[in-house]
Specification:
With 142 residues, the protein is α+β, with helices and mostly antiparallel strands. Helices cover 30% and strands 44% of the residues. Helix 3 runs antiparallel to helix 4.
Length: 142
């Protein structure tokens, strides 16, 4: 069963699916020539906003700065949520470093997270706050 919802807030079952396990997301952005670009990323959910983070110099952050639309897909087996988003804000510095540190602790073991956080501190990081505009639910994610 698939449903398609225009949203300003995420339904409870979607929030549960996005936060219950540290699942990866695929983010799709638009290249300058109009072609799609997709990459697997970590994310955080804060309320109804999705936080994504990257090192400067990667393609998808350049794309999203030029065209503030993105699509995220999160799935497990046949259950999936795809979310059309727009950038609400972007930031870097200590706030972005705090985001990637929180993500590392969510996705990695404590030992690996500490090692990775030390490496991230040497990088120029930026975060984007994505506001969902439409949610597509496939299967029975909860």
């Amino acid at each position: 069963m698939a449903t398609d919802l225009a949203v300003t807030t995420l339904p409870a079952h979607v929030t549960s699916f996005l936060t219950s396990n540290p699942r990866y997301a695929t983010i799709a952005t638009i290249n300058p020539d109009g072609s799609p670009h997709q990459i697997v990323i970590w994310y955080l959910l804060r309320g109804d906003e999705i936080i994504v983070n990257s090192r400067h110099g990667r393609r998808w952050p350049s794309n999203i700065r030029r065209d503030p639309r993105a699509n995220l897909a999160v799935y497990e087996g046949e259950d999936a949520v795809t979310i059309e988003c727009e950038v609400a804000r972007a930031y870097e510095g200590e706030e972005a470093q705090a985001d990637i540190s929180e993500m590392a602790r969510r996705y990695d073991t404590p030992e690996v997270a500490q090692r990775e956080i030390a490496r991230y501190r040497t990088e120029r990081r930026l975060s984007f706050v994505l506001r969902p505009t439409r949610v597509h639910v496939h299967g029975d994610p909860s």
